[in-house]
Write a sequence for this structure.
């Protein structure tokens, strides 16, 4: 997944992957029974996704919207908005409006902004209407009498008024206004709810308040929309929106859509759309298989996958292209299997010439995630060669952030390599002690290292001649050298040393490194399919299934 490799969220991804143990596989039945729909959490408080639940959002569709309730797999519309005007969906909470800017506030907080305030207390005027049509007529009558009434669905149709900041304000309005206008009646103050959602029209009038205990709030484009697209904060998506308030939080917004349409929105963000069609097909099958194996990954929050690099990058309808959609369509329903079951598939940008065995990255031993030669990958790719430079102090601060304070950095040594040549053990020594990183941690703990395939040089390295034909690069610390003052062992705490060169000339060099240069190849975890390699194989004439079966040893595409 190409962009995952550039940012620090990779730390989270790998930690999650290791926690899953990578070995869990779905039943053989799941291989042939792909889900019709998937749920993608666009806004949520899931800590691993770097996205946040929201207190409000805008929604629209060119030919209007339906707002309704979703129970046991069935959608029932409640109201419709026929225009293309943007509608505001807001959690029922405390808000203040100042200079046309609306912000949520805490009533017990400090520095509450000045402005028009609203709150989550309401007055129920009429209860238990059987249908919206009859309720709508009554609302019209009440509004004509001067009361700003609005429809509410709380597992029955009701009529409410007001957005009061407290109980006293609501009761005062009952006595001073509502009874005087509508006459005596059974008016009830409605208390705040941790699940209530409000829908506001473009004129800021309430279209609907929703607070069901039986079903979920759904927003859908009307059937007249073609293409069937809904816009969330101006970003277009296929399918529907589901809105939840998890444990009383801000609103979690979920995009529910057909599996194949979700893959439409993934492929162009995981591989360049101008890649060879067979490479695009390989990516489509890999993305579909990944989806199948990760359904319910975020079930705590009511959805399957997030739209970030913590899962697969998904940005909806806007990024779709003819070539990537074609790749999805021409591989519809195809997944990678091993012994008749969905395989755990992973992909990344570039291998640098060879992929890695999963056991050297995440510690699991999976027979189809082995190191394979990647000879068709072009060395011209921007992902192929790289260099990252850290100062000793930068590394010290990184370690402190990981609760591994070893003091001032004295050395960084690669102590183990995989058969493919990647670093599998890294030892960092400091004035207070040392720490060791193994497998993938040798990369992601340094947030900018692109792969485990690297070597380290420093500004304290010197080259010595062992013979006329043999030279060796060494670090001066703990080494006996001819200094200006004679033969001495360089102290680990010594910053610089003056050495005597040819002709008796003195040179001052670093004794302990102040700069570490990591020079490497490839970009990503290197497990599974290299996207650059897939492109190369496609250009060399390989079909998408051949590409996938090369990277996933012993698998089938079916």
């Amino acid at each position: 997944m190409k962009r995952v490799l550039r940012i620090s969220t990779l730390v989270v991804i790998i930690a999650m992957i290791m926690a899953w143990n990578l070995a869990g596989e779905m039943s053989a039945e799941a291989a042939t029974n792909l889900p019709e729909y998937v749920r993608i959490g666009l806004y949520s408080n899931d800590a691993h996704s770097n996205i946040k639940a929201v207190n409000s959002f805008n929604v629209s569709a060119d030919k209007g919207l339906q707002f309704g309730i979703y129970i046991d797999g069935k959608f029932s519309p409640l109201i419709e908005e026929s225009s293309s005007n943007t509608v505001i969906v807001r959690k029922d909470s405390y808000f203040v409006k100042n200079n046309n800017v609306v912000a949520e506030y805490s009533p017990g907080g400090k520095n509450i902004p000045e402005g028009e305030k609203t709150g989550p207390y309401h007055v129920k005027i009429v209860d238990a209407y059987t249908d919206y049509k009859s309720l709508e007529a009554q609302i019209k009558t009440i509004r004509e009498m001067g009361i700003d009434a609005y429809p509410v669905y709380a597992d029955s149709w009701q009529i409410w008024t007001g957005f009061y900041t407290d109980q006293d304000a609501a009761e005062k309005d009952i006595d001073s206004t509502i009874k005087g206008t509508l006459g005596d009646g059974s008016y009830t103050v409605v208390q705040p709810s941790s699940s209530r959602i409000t829908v506001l029209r473009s004129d800021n009038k309430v279209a609907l308040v929703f607070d069901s205990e039986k079903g979920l709030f759904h927003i859908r484009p009307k059937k007249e929309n073609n293409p069937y697209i809904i816009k969330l904060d101006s970003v277009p998506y296929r399918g529907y929106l589901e809105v939840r308030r998890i444990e009383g939080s801000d609103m979690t917004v979920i995009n529910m859509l057909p599996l194949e349409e979700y893959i439409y929105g993934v492929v162009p963000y995981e591989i360049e759309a101008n890649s060879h069609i067979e490479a695009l097909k390989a990516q489509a099958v890999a993305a579909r298989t990944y989806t199948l194996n990760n359904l319910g990954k975020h079930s705590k929050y009511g959805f399957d996958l997030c739209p970030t690099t913590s899962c697969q990058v998904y940005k909806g309808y806007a990024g779709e292209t003819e070539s990537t959609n074609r790749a999805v369509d021409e591989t519809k329903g195809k997944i990678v299997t091993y012994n008749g079951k969905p395989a755990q598939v992973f992909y990344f940008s570039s291998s640098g010439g060879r992929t890695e065995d999963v056991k050297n990255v995440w510690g699991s031993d999976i027979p189809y995630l082995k190191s394979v030669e990647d000879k068709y990958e072009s060395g011209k790719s921007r992902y192929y060669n790289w260099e990252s430079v850290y100062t000793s102090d930068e590394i010290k601060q990184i370690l402190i952030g990981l609760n591994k304070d070893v003091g001032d950095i004295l050395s960084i040594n690669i102590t183990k390599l995989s058969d493919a040549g990647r670093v599998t053990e890294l030892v960092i020594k400091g004035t207070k002690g040392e720490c060791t990183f193994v497998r993938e941690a040798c990369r992601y703990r340094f947030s900018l290292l692109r792969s485990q395939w690297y070597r380290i040089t420093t500004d304290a390295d010197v080259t010595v001649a062992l013979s006329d034909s043999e030279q060796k690069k060494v670090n001066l610390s703990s080494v006996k050298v001819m200094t200006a003052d004679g033969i001495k062992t360089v102290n680990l705490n010594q910053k610089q040393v003056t050495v005597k060169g040819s002709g008796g000339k003195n040179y001052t060099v670093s004794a302990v490194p102040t700069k570490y240069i990591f020079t490497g190849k490839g970009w990503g975890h290197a497990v599974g399919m290299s996207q650059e390699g897939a492109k190369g194989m496609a250009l060399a004439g390989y079909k998408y299934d051949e590409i996938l079966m090369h990277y996933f040893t012993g698998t089938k595409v079916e």
